[in-house]
Input
Amino acid sequence: MRYSKYLAPTLKEVPAEAEIVSHKLMLRAGMIRKLAAGVYSLLPLGVRVIRKVEAIIREEMNKAGALEVFLPSIQPAGLWKESGRWNMYGKELLRITDRHDREFCYGPTHEEVITDLVRRELRSYRDLPVNLYQIQTKFRDEIRPRFGLMRAREFSMKDAYSFDVNDEAAGESYALMKKAYNSIFKRCGLRFRAVEADTGQIGGSFSHEFMVLAESGEDLIAYCDQCDYSANVEKVSLVADNTDPPTGSYKPAEKVHTPGKGSIDDVSEFLNRPRSTFIKTLIYKTDNENKELVAALCRGDHEINHTKLARALDVNEVVLADEDDVIRATGAPVGYAGAMGLAIPVMADNGVRSMQNAVTGANEADAHIINVNPGRDFPDARYADIRQPVEGDLCPKCGPGKLLLARGIEVGHIFKLGSKYSESLGATFLDKQGAEKHMIMGCYGIGVARTAAAAIEQNHDEQGIIWPVSIAPFDISILPLNIDDQQVVSTAEKLYDDMIKSGMEALLDDREARPGVKFKDADLIGLPLQVIVGKKGLANGVVEIKIRKTGEKISVPVDEAVSRAVTILSDL
Ligand code: ATP
Ligand code: MG
Output
């Protein structure tokens, strides 16, 4: 490809809208442009990367025996009503009405559509197992689209669905996918972990998330320093908390004046008591029928995990209550909630039960209560494991091991679904004995563009992207520095032709631009190699090959440049 005929509108400035590196660099390298919140256009460089990720996914999925299909993105509401998700899915589901007033949605996922296809086409145990996949555009009206392609509203997903005759066979399909996912992310050049994941409301089944390790990750994962345990923190069952009530002496509870000290840090300093002696009280709104408010408690140096809290309350979702609701529930401004005397249900973390003579808000502005004792002062609280793990918590798998924490980007998710959809949608088959049974399903997703973005999060420097060879938009930039020099131009042109002939994907920067501009853009776009063709070098019969990752420059004779580049590339 000739840069002069290409569309790669690079930007010098860091766009203000971008918070994380991959988003900044995708914009700056001219890979993407924003159309609306969470909706992006892919420019030619972006498309090339996405196609490479897709090609790796296709190869590994095909190798694992999955069959590619392509399902509609628009789905009739009727199917979602059958599965029971039309009402459950909430605002992330983009609902559409056609000219005949028929309801549809833009598919956020395809369990319903695929199960409908399979229930019509497959009837016998002989037809199973089958695993069908597609690479398709999804729409989820995310509450907070951000980070560019990482959390978009419209995005491309590889989704696959397996159908088996029984649980054991479904386990085998799951294992095949786990293996395929490992190969996919490895080939994409990522450092990742498969972690145990929460199964949400479906229950009974199991699930793994593939997490790319990166500081910018929205997920937190816990892993053991001694065994192979690793899990999304939402999934970690803590064993360390002492759930026994305390046995020591209770001091009388006492209200203290804490003017303007609404945060635990402030009160802790003001009262000169460590944060671990505080009972943090947060008011949440649940998504159950009455949008009920609940108070969730944990130790002052711990954090509530929303997913664990929702699970303990047996609701889909909890969100922090807004100011008005907090005032309604506690009678006090935000910052002064406490567990004593609340009229709403109280769910406390297990770690709270053994606290003694603790501090809480007084449900009154500018006041706290000291010497609070859970069993005596709020005896009606329910207890569950609802907190976020912290480093040093005991490993739930091996005991003596300690948990460590890391941030991760969820690029893939595999899920043993069981018979949830085959039951609600009636996907059955006849077994060997002629008995009608429900198929056992699994589903398997990969965020295609999120995978590319995660690769940038792990592979970049101050100058720009450093693409892993496998998903780089091209292999090599050819940089003729003096575009008015006949020999420079003809050498670059010949290298370009020869590199293409030898199977490399080359981007020839034939623009009439200063060398500084070409160097900057080449580093920003981040192809694995650059060949620098300059007047001075040619006078000595050499060009320079630069390895983007290390910055190393190797001077090579012109007629060896192609073969050297091929070798270096294959070693990267
Ligand atoms: P998240 O917790 O990040 O919202 P999810 O659990 O909703 O993800 P799944 O429904 O399992 O995601 O979707 C499969 C894959 O699709 C995810 O692993 C992720 O890589 C990708 N994905 C999900 N939501 C988005 C999004 N808003 N933008 C880009 N990719 C996404
Ligand atoms: Mg999501």
Summary: Residues 167-187 form the longest helix (21 residues). The chain has 16 helices and 32 strands.
